[in-house]
């Protein structure tokens, strides 16, 4: 495996370890070309799910692109969207695709099972 691909995979892995698992949203400044929205989203999401932990299930890279399949678990301890804290354990999965240039994430898209998360925390009558 080339050094470039190894470095790109390591960069994406740090998104999950540094930003999410270690709860360090400001780390986005080091690894994203445009970090402001990422930092804000992570910071706000962690207020609702402060013990959130991501597990990287698969990590595939080719050239300047990396794809990560992840699973996530945590506890709904703070308000999120219009949902008051429930104290419920949550779990969801997702995939991130990213393009990297000059050791920065310059483009990224994440698809995650938001519907499943909502289903897990909404009150049923």
Account of the protein in words:
The chain has 125 residues and is of the alpha+beta class. It has one domain (3-121): Roll (Nuclear Transport Factor 2, Chain: A). The protein has helices at residues 3-21, 28-31, 36-48, 114-121, and strands at residues 53-62, 65-75, 89-101, 104-112. Strands 1-2-3-4 form a four-stranded antiparallel sheet. Strand 1 (53-62) and strand 2 (65-75) form a beta hairpin. It is elongated. The mean pLDDT is 95.
Describe the structure concisely for a colleague.
It is built from 4 helices and 4 strands. By secondary structure, the chain is an alpha+beta fold.
What is the domain tally? 1
Strand order of the largest sheet: 1-2-3-4
What's the rounded overall pLDDT mean? 95
The number of helical elements comes to 4
Q: How much helix is in the residues?
A: 25-40%
């Amino acid at each position: 495996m080339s050094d470039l691909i190894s470095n790109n995979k390591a960069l994406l892995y740090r998104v999950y370890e540094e930003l999410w698992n270690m709860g360090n949203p400001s780390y986005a400044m080091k690894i994203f070309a445009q970090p402001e929205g990422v930092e804000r989203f992570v910071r706000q999401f962690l207020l609702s799910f402060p013990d959130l932990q991501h597990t990287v299930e698969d990590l595939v890279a080719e050239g300047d692109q990396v794809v990560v399949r992840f699973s996530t678990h945590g506890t709904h301890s703070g308000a999120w969207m219009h949902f008051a804290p429930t104290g419920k354990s949550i779990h969801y999965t997702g995939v991130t695709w990213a393009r990297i240039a000059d050791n920065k994430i310059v483009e990224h898209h994440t698809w995650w099972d938001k519907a499943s998360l909502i289903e897990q925390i909404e009150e049923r009558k």
